[in-house]
Amino acid sequence: MIQKPLFVRAEWDEEARVWVATSDDVPGLATEEDSFERLIEKLKIMIPELLDANGIGREYEVPFEILTRRFETAQRTVY
Question: What's the CATH number where 31 sits?
Fold first, then answer.
């Protein structure tokens, strides 16, 4: 049986210079990391732990999808 993935939001906090992750699907999830790759590795540990702590039964593998948002500024060339 294929499970519906859990949704995690990750936003870049420019002031703190970290990715911040939260989720309505994973109660208590609020974490940050300075790189996106490290954030993913951290989520792979935290998500199953938080689901267990909240008594939410899941299969051995817990699929999750990360929705990211990061704002940037592009400079126009002035002639």
Answer: 3.30.2390.10
51, 57, 68, 72 from 60: Cα distances, Å: 12, 10, 25, 38
Q: Edge to edge, what strands does the sheet with 30-33 contain?
A: 30-33, 18-22, 6-13, 64-69
DSSP state at residue 12: E
CA distance 69 to 8: 11
Express each pLDDT in 30-64 by its tens digit. 999 999 999 999 999 999 999 999 998 767 889 99
pTM: 0.85
Specify if 24 maps to a domain: yes
**Dist CA 59 CA 42 (whole Å):** 19
